[in-house]
Design goal:
Elements lengths: L2 H12 L6 H7 L11 E4 L1 H7 L3 H11 L5 E7 L2 E6 L1 H15 L13 E5 L11 H19 L3 E5 L7 H13 L2 H6 L1 H18 L2 H14 L3 H25 L16 H10 L4 E3 L2 E4 L9 E4 L7 H16 L3 E5 L5 H13 L8 E4 L4 E3 L2 E2 L10 H19 L6 H18 L7 E2 L2 H5 L6 H17 L15 H22 L4 H20 L9 H22 L8
Parallel strand pairs: 4-5, 4-9, 9-10, 11-13
Antiparallel strand pairs: 1-3, 2-3, 6-7, 7-8, 11-12
The structure holds arginine (ARG).
Arginine binds next to helix 13.
Length: 563
C-alpha cells in the first residue's frame, strides 16, 4: 500500500473516528525539506473538533503513533512528521509489485460501470489527419486508463461517413475523377478531388449548388450516389484499418454518422413532441437563447439533417444500448460549442444522463507553427509519417544493436511508440508541434528513451540469470533505491489521477520520471554484485520493468525486451 495510505490508516486509528482515512489521506503533505521527514500531517484541521491547539494535538499524536514502517515520528509545530522505515517499506512495496505483476496499480473507481468513449472518428474520403491522430492516441490511452480504473469500456469510432462533403466529392468525381487512379491510391486521389473542388468553387459558386443537389440525392437513396458513396467508404476504411493496425488501436464499434440515418425521424419527432423544436428561417432549430448560446441546428430548410442531429441520435442510442454511466468524446477543442449544444438539447429532452456526457478537447498539431488544414491540402499523410518513423527507428537500431533479432518488429514498436509518446507527454490542451527528429531521440523526454530504459532493465535481469525474481527478504535503504521505490509506490495514484483528470500526460510524465530515476540508480549502484542485498536489488529492477511496461501500455506504447 502506498505510504500515504498507511500513514492515513495509522492516524485514523489514533484519533478514532474523528476523521475518515480517505479524508486524512488527502490532507497529508510532503515536508518542504527531506530532512524534516517523508510525510507530514497538518493538525490544525483537527483543532475545532478536538478543541485543542494544533501544536498540542501534534505532540499527542506523535507520541501515540507507532508502526514498524516508521523509523521516527516527530511533532514539528502543528505538524506530525514521519520518517519512513525505508528498509521495511521497500520490502512491502516490492513484494506487492512482484505479486500483483501487471495488475499492480489497478483501481476500482469504475467498478460495475460502463464508459463509452468516442475517439478517432475520422472522415471518410479524407485523409486521416494529424488531428484524428491526436484523438486516436489520446482516446486509446484514456480508454486503457479507464479500464485499469475498473470501468467496462466501449470504444466507439463515430466515422464521419455522412454529410454535405459527399455531395462535393461526388460532384468533383463526376467532373474530374478517374476510377483507375483512385483504385491505385484512394485517399490521395480523393483528397486531390476534394481540394480541387474547393479551389474551383472559389470562382464558380454554382459548384456548391451542384454539391448540395448530389448530397440530397444521396439522402434520398439515389442508386448512383449510393454506389459511389459505398465505394469511397470501402476504400477509406481499408486505409484507416492499416493505420489502426500500425498504431495497435482497437474499437468495439464502427457505427458512424450514416448508421443513424434511420433514426433521424425519431429524434425529430421526439424534439417536436417535447416542444423544444422551433422554426427559424425555414430551418428547425433548438433555441439556446436562455443559455446564451447560438441555436442548435437540427434540420435545414431543404430537409437535410446535420452533424448535431446525428450526435443527438447517437447519444440516445448509446445510452439505450450500453446504459453508460459516463460518455466521453475525444474531439478537438474547436468543437466545444457543438458538444455544449448537444448536452443542453439532451437535457431539454429530459435526459438526466446528459450530464454524464463529457467533451474531452485537445489542441492542434502544428506544422511549423501553422494549423494543418485538409481543405487547403496542408496535411501530412499519416501513414507515410508512421512509416518514416519506423524507418528512422530501424536506422537507429542498426547503429546501436545490429545483431538484434526481430529488428523489424522492434523498429515498428519504437517508431510508433515515439509518435504516440510525443503526443501524450504534453497536456492535451496544448498545441503540439510535429517533429519526427525530436520524437525519435533515444535521450531526453521521448518514448524511445523510456522503452530503452525498460529494455536495459530487462537485460540486467537476463544477465542475472534469475528464472523468477522473488520477494526480497532484505530491505533497501540507500537513497538511490529509495528514489526509485517511492515512484514505484506512487504508480496506483498516477493511474487514478490520470483518469480523474482525463489526462494521459500524467502517465507519460510519470514513466519519464521513473526512467530517469532508474537510470540514476543504474549509474550509481552496482546491481549484480552478489552480496546480501542482491535479491532485493533484482526485485527492484524487476518491479521497474513491470511498472514501466504497464505505464507504457496505458499510453498505447509497446515495451520491447531488447532494442
Ligand atoms: N468526424 C468528426 C470530425 O472529424 C469527429 C466526430 C467526433 N465524434 C462525434 N460523435 N461527433 O470532425
Amino acid at each position: 500500500m502506498e505510504a500515504k495510505q498507511l500513514y492515513a490508516e495509522e492516524i485514523e486509528k489514533t484519533i478514532s473516528g474523528v476523521k475518515k482515512k480517505e479524508e486524512i489521506e488527502g490532507l497529508i503533505e510532503k515536508p518542504k525539506f527531506e530532512e524534516q521527514g517523508d510525510l507530514a500531517f497538518p493538525c490544525f484541521v483537527l483543532a475545532k473538533q478536538l478543541k485543542q491547539a494544533p501544536a498540542k494535538i501534534a505532540e499527542q499524536l506523535a507520541n501515540q503513533i507507532q508502526a514498524s514502517i516508521f523509523s521516527k515520528v516527530v511533532a514539528v509545530g502543528p505538524y506530525v512528521n514521519v520518517f519512513l522505515n525505508r528498509a521495511e517499506m521497500s520490502k512491502s512495496i516490492l513484494s506487492k509489485v512482484l505479486a500483483e505483476k501487471e495488475c499492480f496499480g489497478a483501481q476500482s473507481i469504475g467498478e460495475g460501470q460502463v464508459l463509452t468513449i468516442d475517439y478517432s472518428s475520422p472522415n471518410i474520403a479524407k485523409p486521416f489527419s494529424m488531428g484524428h491522430l491526436r484523438s486516436t492516441v489520446i482516446g486509446n490511452s484514456l480508454a486503457t486508463v479507464a479500464k485499469k480504473n475498473g470501468y467496462q469500456v466501449v470504444r466507439i469510432n463515430h466515422l464521419g461517413d455522412w454529410g454535405t462533403q459527399f455531395g462535393k466529392l461526388i460532384t468533383a468525381y463526376k467532373k474530374w475523377g478517374n476510377p483507375d487512379t483512385i483504385k491505385e491510391n484512394p485517399i490521395k486521389e480523393l483528397l486531390a478531388l476534394y481540394v480541387k473542388f474547393h479551389e474551383e468553387a472559389e470562382e464558380k459558386r454554382e459548384l456548391e449548388d451542384e454539391a448540395r443537389a448530389w448530397f440530397k440525392r444521396l439522402e434520398d437513396g439515389n442508386v448512383e450516389a449510393t454506389e459511389l458513396w459505398n465505394w469511397f467508404k470501402d476504400e477509406s476504411l481499408q486505409e484507416f484499418a492499416k493505420i489502426y493496425q500500425l498504431l495497435g488501436v482497437p474499437f468495439d464499434s464502427y457505427h458512424g454518422e450514416a448508421f443513424y440515418n434511420d433514426k433521424m425521424d425519431g429524434v425529430i419527432k421526439e424534439l417536436e413532441n417535447k416542444n423544444v423544436l422551433e422554426r427559424s428561417d425555414g430551418a428547425d432549430v433548438v433555441s439556446l437563447e436562455k443559455e446564451n448560446l447560438p441555436p442548435c441546428l437540427i434540420r435545414k430548410s431543404d430537409g437535410a439533417t446535420l452533424y448535431a442531429t446525428r450526435d443527438l441520435a447517437a447519444a440516445i442510442y448509446r445510452q439505450k444500448t450500453y446504459q453508460f454511466s459516463k460518455s466521453f468524446y475525444v474531439v478537438g477543442h474547436e468543437q466545444s460549442l457543438h458538444f455544449q449544444q448537444i448536452k443542453l438539447v439532451l437535457e431539454k429532452l429530459g435526459y438526466d444522463w446528459a450530464k454524464e456526457i463529457e467533451h474531452i478537447p485537445f489542441g492542434f498539431i502544428l506544422q511549423n507553427g501553422r494549423k494543418m488544414s485538409t481543405r487547403k491540402g496542408r496535411v501530412i499523410l499519416l501513414e507515410e509519417v508512421i512509416k518514416e518513423a519506423i524507418d528512422l527507428a530501424k536506422q537507429n537500431i542498426n547503429e546501436k544493436n545490429p545483431n538484434l533479432v526481430d529488428k523489424d518488429e522492434v523498429a515498428k514498436q519504437v517508431g510508433v511508440g515515439a509518435i504516440i509518446f510525443h503526443d501524450l507527454k504534453n497536456e492535451k490542451q496544448n498545441n503540439v508541434e510535429f517533429s519526427l527528429e525530436d520524437m525519435l531521440r533515444f535521450e531526453g523526454t521521448t518514448g524511445p528513451y523510456v522503452q530503452y530504459t525498460h529494455a536495459r532493465a530487462c537485460s540486467i535481469l537476463r544477465k542475472a540469470k534469475f528464472g523468477e525474481v522473488s520477494s526480497p527478504e532484505d530491505g533497501l535503504d540507500d537513497s538511490y533505491s529509495w528514489a526509485v521505490l517511492k515512484l514505484v509506490d506512487h504508480f496506483p495514484h498516477v493511474v487514478e489521477r490520470s483518469f480523474l483528470l482525463r489526462d494521459p500526460s500524467k502517465v507519460a510524465k510519470y514513466v519519464l520520471e521513473l526512467a530517469q530515476e532508474f537510470n540514476k540508480y543504474y549509474s550509481h549502484v552496482k546491481i549484480l554484485v552478489e552480496d546480501e542485498q542482491y535479491e532485493a536489488r533484482l526485485a527492484l529492477v524487476k518491479a521497474v520493468t513491470i511498472v514501466l511496461k504497464e505505464g507504457l501500455r496505458l499510453l498505447g506504447v509497446k515495451a520491447p525486451k531488447q532494442m
